[in-house]
Fold:
Amino acid sequence: MRTSELKLCGLAAVRARWQRDPASIQRLFFDYATGRRIGVMCKALAANRKIYRCVETAELEKVAGSVHHGGIVAVVAEPALRTPTARDVQAWATQHAPVLLLDRIGNAHNLGALARTAAFFGVKHCVLVDDPTAARPNDAAYRVAEGGLEALTVWIVGDLPEFLRTLAAGGYETLGAATRGAQALGRKTKSPHRQPPPRALVMGNEEHGLAPEVAAACTRLVTIPGTNAVESLNVSVAGAVLMWELFGRRG
Structure:
């Protein structure tokens, strides 16, 4: 079976992959200025007889398939996405691990931005739905994530409402982001005697929001209070606010 390739663009994304899994880098291309900053990578690739090359900007654009290459492109194999099991969910719950679920996020740039924010706030698991309209972790998503996708395990499920019920059965509070019919998030007083349950945040499609069956499967719907000057925020911005509120607060 043919393995697809990803082009990781930008020094932040390439360095993050290098730190996590240097052996996965199959080929490396860079411009002169960036080459002066990656001597360690080049020496290691040379020792392993892998291709690395300093090229002109025009060739780097061809390799990347984009002008937004950031001076460096690493070619890696596209990862296979696995489906989490009930045992995986139980392990996450035991670790009190926050989870981000994306219901048909269609724009790869939004996927990358959400992954970057999730990594910033310590989220380790991101679950996508297997839908033809949903973005996957492609070249653009990795570029925008700037290394964030290396900090996450990305999973995929065929039936998101059913998986939300599996999370709830495992002890998770599943919170769906909505613009209507939802509870406004705000600071709550912590109980000194009771640890809150692990949380999973569900973000919906950019245009349509959460599918009705997904919203119905959440244990609670939440929204961000605003001025009503506009109906909603961009999904990546809304995700950042909600992740800070749900996962980022330490006090």
About this structure: The CA atoms of residues 121 and 244 lie 7 Å apart. The chain has two domains: 5-77, 86-248.
